[in-house]
Design brief:
Immunoglobulin-like, five-stranded antiparallel sheet, four-stranded mixed sheet, 128 residues, 41% strand, elongated, alpha+beta
Length: 128
Amino acid sequence: MNGITRCLTAVALAVALGFVSGACRDDPTNSERGDPVAILLEFDTLHLAVGADSVRFVGRLVDENLTPIPGPLDWRSENEGVVSIIGPGTLEDFEVGDAILLRAVAAGSTSLVASSGSVAASAFVIVE
């Protein structure tokens, strides 16, 4: 291996390690997370049909770098007569967050609120 080939190999290895290192910072299992600053919801607005099967809804607590922080959220429907939370939802193996199951009860609109400590987010739900 000549000097140029060794140099290019070293540069390629350094670039590859940089990508791996960057990917590790985005790893949701990484323990170097910041404090929670926001909750990202799966939808801002959700349209449901009365009597439809349950619908899974996901929220994610994140830090200032948008790194997901595992843990449960507190959920509530502002009007249980329109949309009710019928239980916990399941997450895929790759997902970090908290999931619930919703059921459309009656026509109308309401807000679905997720919170954790002083951080909260809401989605508008329309039932027809």
